[in-house]
Specification:
Blueprint (H helix, E strand, L loop, with lengths): L17 H8 L9 E4 L2 E4 L1 H11 L10 H32 L3 H6 L8 H17 L5 H23 L10 H13 L6 H4 L3 H9 L13 H4 L3
Antiparallel strand pairs: 1-2
Helix pairs in contact: 3-6, 3-7, 7-9
């Protein structure tokens, strides 16, 4: 969204687990990222950041001016943030504990205040600490995997209806594109998602999403996709 609005920024990654304390030390009230300082204000969460960016630089807009269309975008944005993203995150948490080599693919390139070479050197020490906080149970992961086809159908339907996928992306476009970008990192899921319109949307808006999970899901879990 910052790139789309041509707003200069500096990105910083925070180490998993430590990020909760580091956010508090920097004056943020919450415990999750993304978080941003925008003209002296501390804004937390991608939805709040989208609105703050529209206040800072109204053009190009992240929300339609028409109230009815805006309501559709906001509802889709809310769903993508609360449900679609949760499924992708939980699947990633399960997968990383079954494919530990994936940690390195997501850790670099890094926006930590450390050179990438040092990050790679420290990964054998840091990875076990990170993985302890990324655990997800089999039942939870399988339930989110089963929910995925309907979620992808909803995203594709929103593109067909013109709510997202237009020439000028809105806040819901970015929410859905980023989550789809994570899902496309799964070797098991990529062939099933790539033919969909939502995959094209993701490639257009988030073309360089890092990371890769090798085949991790049991065959019977994938049978319903």
């Amino acid at each position: 969204m910052l790139d789309y609005k041509r707003i200069p920024y500096v990105r910083r990654d925070l180490p998993n687990h430590l990020h909760k304390r580091l956010l508090r030390l920097q004056g943020f009230q919450g415990r999750t990222v993304p978080a941003a300082r925008i003209e002296g204000r501390r804004i937390e969460g991608s939805r709040a950041i989208a609105r703050a960016l529209d206040e800072l630089r109204p053009q190009p807009p992240l929300f339609p001016a028409d109230p009815t269309r805006r309501a559709c975008v906001e509802e889709l944005e809310r769903w993508a943030d609360a449900e679609y993203q949760t499924s992708a995150r939980r699947l990633g948490q399960w997968a990383v504990s079954h494919d530990r080599a994936a940690v390195a693919t997501f850790a670099t390139p890094s926006y930590l205040p450390l050179p990438d070479r040092l990050v790679r050197t420290l990964l054998p020490v840091l990875a076990p600490v990170v993985l302890r906080g990324l655990w997800a149970g089999d039942e939870d992961a399988r339930a989110h995997l089963a929910a995925l086809p309907a979620q992808l159908d909803r995203a594709d339907a929103a593109i067909a209806d013109g709510v997202i996928g237009g020439e000028g992306p809105n806040a819901a476009d970015f929410q859905i594109a980023a989550t789809t970008g994570l899902l496309l990192c799964f070797d098991d899921l990529r062939p099933r998602i790539e033919p969909r319109p939502v995959a094209e949307l993701s490639r257009r808006l988030v073309p360089n999403y890092p990371g890769r999970f090798g085949p991790v899901f049991p065959r019977e879990w994938l049978a319903t996709l």
